[in-house]
Design brief:
single chain, 4 strands, Rossmann fold, alpha/beta
């Protein structure tokens, strides 16, 4: 990243921090951990409650659900269905204070597989091997553990991607408890149905879903890391987990 790009990124982040309100809830995760899944669920709740069930695609999602450092957080939040939920992949910063926050975590080894394909196949911003990728200070396991360590005592609630796969209604209702909203059961269940992996894949534009970079929503499974990690990679992971005192996924 150039000096100019880095300065621009810091400026957008500072502007976003200035726009955060006490009523905002942060949706904080490392990339490829399930953040988009949760945002689709929340946007579908808005759609079912306020837009007569209008179909939610990625464009509508990104216009509706703001991201720290990307969108104008000084703008009014027009949706009474839920408080404003602000996405961020940033590590915890003291400026966040005690703001309510939802942590979405996923087995970091599966995160590495998904993130590798996202940066390598889709975005073409990383071109080296998988073994090198998981050791990269910005994209790899060192960055995941640094992110987790910064947030783990700060999150108001932690939701595991794997638990959302098994019991999506239960886990997404836990998120609604943090937001202090209680939509009707049928609305929650319909929003969950609209947020299945197949629904997310259909929500992508035809160009995005079929171009040579591949789709944003991949397999959405757990345990795929076993076909990617060598013994040396697994030892590296275990060493980092021990170093950071993070036994959440062993």
């Amino acid at each position: 990243m150039s000096v100019t790009s880095r300065a621009s990124s810091y400026l957008r982040l500072a502007s976003g921090l200035a726009g955060l309100r006490s009523s905002d809830v942060l949706l904080a995760s490392f990339p490829r951990s399930g953040n988009t899944w949760v945002r689709f669920f929340l946007c579908n709740l808005i759609s079912l409650s306020e837009w007569d069930g209008r179909e939610v695609d990625f464009a509508l999602l990104n216009r509706t659900m703001p991201e720290l450092g990307v969108d104008n957080l000084l703008a009014r939040w027009p949706h009474p269905t839920i408080p404003r939920v602000v996405k961020t992949h940033q590590r915890y910063r003291f400026m966040f204070g005690r703001k309510a926050s939802i942590g979405i975590i996923r087995d970091p080894r599966d995160v590495m597989v998904s993130y590798y394909h996202f940066t390598h196949d889709r975005k073409r911003i990383y071109s080296s091997s998988f073994a090198e990728f998981i050791r990269h200070p910005r994209y790899g396991l060192p960055s995941w553990f640094a992110h987790y360590s910064s947030w783990r005592s700060r999150w108001s609630i932690v939701v595991r991607f794997e638990d959302m796969l098994e019991e999506p209604v239960r886990e997404l209702r836990r998120i609604l408890d943090v937001l202090d909203v209680e939509p009707p059961d049928e609305v929650v269940e319909e929003a969950v149905s609209r947020t299945s992996l197949g629904a997310l894949q259909r929500a992508e534009s035809p160009k995005t879903a079929t171009d040579r970079y591949g789709a944003f929503a991949r397999s959405g499974t757990s345990g795929q890391w076993r076909t990617y990690f060598s013994d040396e990679d697994s030892a590296h992971y275990a060493e980092l987990a021990k170093l950071h005192g993070a036994g959440v996924y062993v």
